[in-house]
Batch of 2 targets.
Target 1
Amino acid sequence: MIEKTINFSRRVFVEKTATVAAAVTIAPGVFLHQVAQAKPADQAVTSAVRWGMLIDTNKCATGCTACVSACNEENGIQSHDRPATDQQWIRKVKLRDTQTGHITSLPMMCQHCEKPPCVDVCPTGASMKREDGIVLVDKHICIGCRYCMMACPYKARSFAHETVTDQKDYAPRGKGTVEACTLCVHRVDEGGTPACVEACNAAEHGAMIFGDLKDPESNISKELEKHGGTQLRADLRLNTGVRYQGI
Amino acid sequence: MLQLKQLMHKSLLMVVGSALLALSSAVYADGDAERKASFMPDIPEPMNKSLKCVKPEEDMKKNHMSYILHQRDKTLREGIRTPTFSLKECINCHVPENSTARFGDSKHFCSSCHNFAGVTIDCFQCHTDRPAGDKKHSLNTSSLPHYADTSAEGVSK
């Protein structure tokens, strides 16, 4: 019985592969539909997409830190047991409504603003926004002045005070530079999703949706159209890429 | 007296000349033993000797820094992640996966020459100086090239 099941799934797998191969080889350069979401590695990112994230705070569990530990593991962030100065790319925030006593839990990270204040204040051009809306620090030219940290209304950036060892090959980090959430840009460029979103789904909370805000067919756009989402500090008119529900 | 002086001068020149000759033959000697015997740095061979470098060796010796510099801006700012001039791929090919040599040790590919030439670089203050190997995220089961998973289970997913 087990063997049959395996054979069946194998056959389906082969058939699917053959179909995809046929679709691709109909004519050179002609595709019936886009097979993979990932852009070719040799092409630059464009403003045709804008990456964003939607967080449903009602699904986000109080006390759960799956997203935070996933981020730390993914990007090789180590603690020095100094919470005030340790780097953090994502953190959990607990809000308590004094009127009702209702507690809201939410993850907080770089909001990937359309008009990022950190980019405005950077004296070297190290703080930058990619065409697809991801805000990054170019650590090659960051001088560690930390203006961006002060300019950020979300306290999203942190400074590497200590020598960093055992970095991940896709996430270079070093002493004397500012760093923040990269929206797992190394994964996104290959058609993947950020580590925090994967971890949230793995923990069966499903509070985070990642996707293209400019694609009306993406899950995030559909959800935003249906139920809406709020920006944190919308009064600053930064048009954040990260949106929240339930606050 | 003058003749003696000239003779001494001549013999000195000959000694210096032969020393130079010996030195140059050591420099151009092709073979590990001779190279080790000379003052030239002992540069570790790449992992897979059958693979050719992305550019001829002479070109890489001269221009690797410009290739890497150019690629770094393309990657960071434009998201172009081609492997050809990626520092990551340099490391993957030139540093053994389980190597204990860190940048700064004479056995590390980059520092073997940089130490010799006295050229300080800060690449490895941020970038890892060893291949990533299987240090990928435990949650990641993607079969995308970056996270190539060779197990049958990973492929059929």
Note: The mean pLDDT of chain B is 72.
Target 2
Amino acid sequence: MSGGLGDADDREWRRLDPRTVLVRVALFGGVLVGAALPVAFGLAGDRPLWQAFAWVAAAAALALGVAVVAETVRFRRTRYRVGPDRVELHTGLLVVQRRSLARERVRSADLSANPLQRVFGLVKVRVGTGEHSGGESPLELDLVTRAEGERLRRELLARSAGPSGTPDGDDTLAALDPRWIRFAPVSFLVPALGGAAIGAVMQVSEWFGAQGKVIHWIGDRFQDVSLAWMIVDLVLLAAVTGAVGALGLWVEMWWNYRLEREPGGTLRVARGLLTTRSVSLEERRLRGVELVQPLGVRLCGAARVDAVATGLAQNDGDEHADLKNLLPAVERAVADRVAAQVLREPEPPTAAPLTVHPRAARTRRLRRALWAALAPVVVLAVLGLLLTPVLLYVAAGCAVVLAPIAVLFALDAYRGLGHAVSGAYLVTRSGSLRRATVALQRSGVIGWTVRQSYFQRRAGLLTLTATTAAGTGAYDILDAGENEGLTFAAGAVPDLLAPFLETKPVRGEREACAKRVTDAP
Amino acid sequence: MTGENAVRLRPPRNAVDERAVTWWRWQLLVATAVPVAVLTVLGAFIGPARSWLLLAAVAVAAPGLACAAFLPVWWFRVHRWEVTDDAVYVRTGALRQEWRIAPMSRIQTVDTVRGPLEQYLRLATVTVTTASSKGAIRIEGLDHELAAGLAERLTLLTRATPGDAT
């Protein structure tokens, strides 16, 4: 640590922004107040209110003091440096952690800032290596100034401006169109949020011991109407609450959304109203895109676009920060256009015409759906025969309602099946509740798995799975025709499947052969 | 390659070792014997529920023994493997068959595992993984010397084949 070299080293080391102490203590204080209030009210049961509050305030002050000291120590002990080939971070309160990443292995540098951090102009920086391995958290700088964060991001991601660093003129691939918000209330978030709202009302009222009162109050509101109407009204209320919640969440998530291509071959998604985020994705890690259409979104003719990339963390623990999401639900045509631009293709592979799967696949779906729908009916009917005839009527009702729904879903699922090769991409589509169209780079396929169950063998179908290093690791072509599917797979990825294929006698010939054998004495 | 010329996946060249049948059979027998033993012991001690517990034991034992008798032979006929200069190719399954292909250039690790029973029978399982979380290939029931040689050959081949494996 002595001499000119040591001094140079010291100059390179940087500290976090001093205000990080303030922000983190303020956040802790907020949590503390939130926890202290119920505790104070709880203690107030068997002693005067002021006394309870005094106790809790004293404890809170002590905790806050400890937090200030701890955060100050943490701030003083934390320093980082971006060297020519390594990024290093020293941190730790009691145990000193030294984390060091090779710069060439840095795959992402994502910024995020919640409202409190934004007031102070600070951001959190997460530097990742794109490893899937859990446990080993990436290098995290908590917190630095926005300018410093941007500088770090650029410095870490701007690598030798490779061959893909071509200027594209307009670098913005997509920007927020406020009209997209109309697709927010048709997402599966609505029932989830509606249910959560009801749950929250019940939970809070239980804390204050007023759950019974709330239920009675609701019962009084609906005194004059029948039970059925009350249920319908409550479901509607929950749906409206959920829809409002979904709209709010959409605005918070997608405000100021921009999808840009940066020099050096990086895609960048920036978004957020209160909490702002910036997620970067190296294009050389991109193996394709996935066009996802949940049922509601699909019925409105919309789709969202996810990236299929290697080494994307599935979820970094940050709520609703889906790192692979490139575009919110938008009109299908826009989604296709953005997908094509992301992949640098003239024509969107996700809109390519797909090969239809054999009708046997439809039969399979219909049969499976009917089994699933009729199983509860059979159980109810058997119980009805044994116990009470009322259940027989319930069973009949179930059959009348469930069977057509099952058939509709089965037919829809069959219509969704398809696969094709479009340019450098292998495209496969499936799903009904969540229809996904995946366009996967053909060079990104690192293996094939072919599956055939007994029933598939009889129906002349098989399921092809392209394994890849990106995304979920494998993408299925469900129930493709035996012959067509294998030929397709052999053609889509050259020299992989083809050496293991052999021609077999055509069905007619084989049957003739079999016949000759049986005819023989 | 289209239309009349129907294609299918040809079976891989090599069968697994014949001792694998014994190995599979022992595995199935142990898997059956443990619950049957537990149920029988319970039946011996708990008087009131004896008939039910023994009935359950028989209900587990009968299909278990049937599986142990027939499944290994079936598996032996289906399970086949092949390593070419370019790829590893394996067929497994019984009712639901599965063919797996991984190109040599994408192989990341080659592991050889030998459990206690496998050591006794001088067998080994070779697992080949690729960069895909779902692309691993297992070749079960190989003679242990053959497996060691195979692992070595695979390691050499993957080293000789260029590519960054993703």
Note: The two ends of chain A are 96 Å apart (CA to CA).
